[in-house]
Amino acid sequence: MPDVLAADATIGNPAVNISIFGAFVLVTLAITFKASRNNKSAADYYAAGRTITGQQNGLAIAGDYLSAASFLGIAGAIAVYGYDGFLYSIGFLVAWLVALLLVAELMRNTARFTMADVLAFRMRQGPVRTAAAISTLAVSLFYLLAQMSGAGGLVALLLGVSGDLAEALVVALVGALMIFYVLVGGMRGTTWVQIIKASLLILGALVMTLWVLGEYGFNLSALLGGAVESAGNESVLNPGARYGVSDVSKLDFISLALALVLGTAGLPHVLMRFYTVPTAKDARRSVVWAIWLIGIFYLFSLVIGYGAGALVGAEDILAAPGGVNSAAPLLAFELGGTVLLGIIAGVAFATILAVVAGLTITASASFAHDVYASVIKKGDVPPNGEVKVARITAVVVGAISIGLGILALQAGLNIAFLVALAFAVAASANLPTILYTLFWKRFTTQGALWSIYGGLIVCIGLIIFSPVVSGAETAMFSGVDFAWFPLNNPGLVSIPASFLLGWLGTVMTKEKPNEAKWAELEVRAFTGIGAEKAVDH
Amino acid sequence: MTPPPDRRLLTPEEYRAAQDSPEFVELKKRFRSFAFPMTVAFLAWYLLYVLLSTYAVDFMSTPVFGNVNVGLLFGLAQFVTTFVITHLYVAHANKRTDPIADEMRDRLEAHEFAPGTTTDGAHTPGSTRA
Q1: What is the span of the domain harbouring residue A13?
Q2: Do A292 and B85 touch (CB under 8 A)?
Q3: What ipTM score was computed for the predicted complex, to two decimals?
Q4: Which region holds residue A466: left if phi is over 0, alpha if psi is between -120 and 50, else beta?
Q5: Per residue in A287-307, pLDDT tens?
């Protein structure tokens, strides 16, 4: 096996990989076309007419959430670093409790289409909507960048193409397909793409998990023993292989852990999924489904990760094109040969495609609904004018992310880092503002602006002056050193800063909270009165 | 997205009356008495896990049986508690908060919180039922 790898930069049969991926694209395109026939109003385009059931939406949330970083990144991190890779998945999972307990139902009851609907509810519309839209776009773009550059890196391994031009072409192809899904299918089409993709991904992971466990007589301890034997020492079972190196890296890990657990409930594309269901109870049901699916998937990825470490070996994984991210595909090849690899490769590619479609629709909805319709046109838009703008925005966002994706790919930016960054921005700029808006009566416009812009600026500012951008060997600009902030992830500082600024901005203004709007927000959030209903076709 | 013709929008006075009603105060109390302490609890439990994994590596590396060590069991326990809290929340919502929310929503839709209708005794039984 390793000899085959060394002889050839790609594994498996690219024709098989491409045809499985092609089949996924064809099926989802057909469904997207079918779904598009019901796309008439803004509620159809943004929120699938609010007709998605809780169970379907749970699958779609899992589809949105289990991105390439989750599937390839976590399995790879466990295969190479062992225990420390496992820590990621726990943060990603526990985060859902914040969404379930504090955010999902209350947001579903008060908003129509976007996060800004809630944040601006009892504030001065223009400034707060603009701020919320800017932070939505920032999070979506970071996340999009991660997925796009992941797509380019993945193909080198899976489809047998390599070289800058070929990878750029793949990014452009992914971008074009994504724009098509979003333009034609709207939220309804995108939701179905997510549902199909999540089902395939979880099934594929289940097959690999059972297969790996079967190799070790369904004995977890024996599997761990295999990983130890392959790694040559026991450190893969213990914490610290990756983050335990120094005091700074330990703090960095705590910072990352904080961003992961508080970021999820502030991710705009996750929040937007809550508006596709008919009632708050369905929103609750969908989060419950999502928690179970995502949790079980991460348990699978623990087995897949240690399985790849044991059966493929960390050295071969790191040497393969795609590096750490290639652990799961390499394991699939080791277990089931060309066909299983083709299936897993197709699923991984579909994963990226589905996630970018979800992000694009969120970004375009935020611009069209919050900036264009509410701020620029002050609510005075012709019927369908908003959806038209949303479609144009989807094309623009798609084009920008293709361009930036190609740049990020050539700069060799790490996928997991970009995703962690998106989580840090979401946890810093969005979550504090959401919680204050829902639970603190005195919260004012100035407080909201301070926590959104403050969180955003502190978070991105610290990233610019971190070792990620300059100073370190692996930095974006390794030749210069203007890094004075020691941590890679800014969450430890930027999240408390945003909470503090939201409080400070509120107590330092003479502005009185709008009591009538506060009453309306609270009563609507907790009882569901006046919540947007499903569209009847 | 036009509302059905028979659906009259609620007035700010109705929202204020509903917000001040004893059953709404009770609804909020029930929601907060579960969600807030539970959030503190699971965040503390998660941070404990993160801190132990970072600063108590030797403890987490203690083998328990075979190749399974304390850290792995601790991590799996995070999955278990997440599933359990999810279940507890759903049970709490179904039993303790949904009944009040559903009843209040029906009465708001019937405009029973509008000024002038409060004196007909329409919502006094509801507050005790909550």
Answers
A1: 2-527
A2: no
A3: 0.90
A4: beta
A5: 999 999 999 999 999 999 999
